[in-house]
Amino acid sequence: MQIKKLEKGSKYTGELPEGCKFCRQGRKMVMLVTGLCKLSCFYCPLSAKKKGNDVIYANEKNVESDEDVIYEAKTIDALGTGITGGDPLEVLDRTLHYIKILKNEFGDDHHIHLYTGYTSDSKTLVKLQNTGLNEIRFHIPFNFWTKFQDSKYENTINEALKTNMTVGVELPALPDLKEELIALTLQLDNLGVHFLNLNELEYSETNWEELIGRHYEIRHETSNAIKGSQWVADDILKRLDTTMALHYCSSRFKDGVQLKRRIKRRAKNTKRESDIVTEEGLFIKGIVECDDLGGVYEQLKERFKIPGELIYIDKEKERLEIAPWILEDIHEKIDYPCFIVEEYPTADRLEVERRPLKWPP
Length: 361
Description:
TIM Barrel, 11 helices, six-stranded antiparallel β-sheet, eleven-stranded mixed β-sheet
């Protein structure tokens, strides 16, 4: 079967999964409905603040209300949502709730896929389908790869294939389990699974010790990808002629394509008049740090005749934001610490660079 190439080393055979098409555009919201999961996969990359905690995130936004979810989807012009965890089936009612509100807000065309490592009965699968789930992706833990036949995972996937949902499997390409992964791939193809996603194995703050303990190595000092993972996926795509679509998603694709495009879209939709947006989609802001935000705001606005749309009180970060080109001109006349900062346009607003204009007196 012909191998089709995507950006940053990703590739696929057959038809690219529908959910992946929207991810590639940067128009699929990632919704973590809980960090809870009964499985203990050694390669799970979930961050420490989410792993094992019953938290909800829409992209990088900590969700406190349904409105937060809708807002985040709108900031990236989302055409779909990927529901993940932890495991979404750990909080089934919550998962069904979010599927319902997303469909109600954005319509039936809003594509929703769900990623789960849990097995479930036909009743649960029908509930997911009837609520509006378009695509379900099963994670089969590595210790089931050699005993998939007649397992609870095979039974669940068979039940899912009886629904109207697209049914896929999503697995990490483990460098030391290539033959096991090949055998499982052939079994999934014979079963009638619609697609198999192979993800490049990556290290994170929470799985690093486990990966090192199994003698995995970093592919390159500037990468968090594990050596040999891409080779395993490449070999499977080349060797196997399956009816089932095969898709390899590289670590570089996730960061350099999916995330980058989503960030650029969010920057475009959330920027203030006082922000400069870089080619990478990051914000450059001028900031002033002080105790009396309201008083200093009025003082600077009046003294330097700053238009209201170019100066802003940021209560969350307890600072004033001033258009950087204005702050560059006036900082020497200000008696407060002033900086030019570069930060992500995401809800967590991660700061990546800070250049001081004026230190505290």
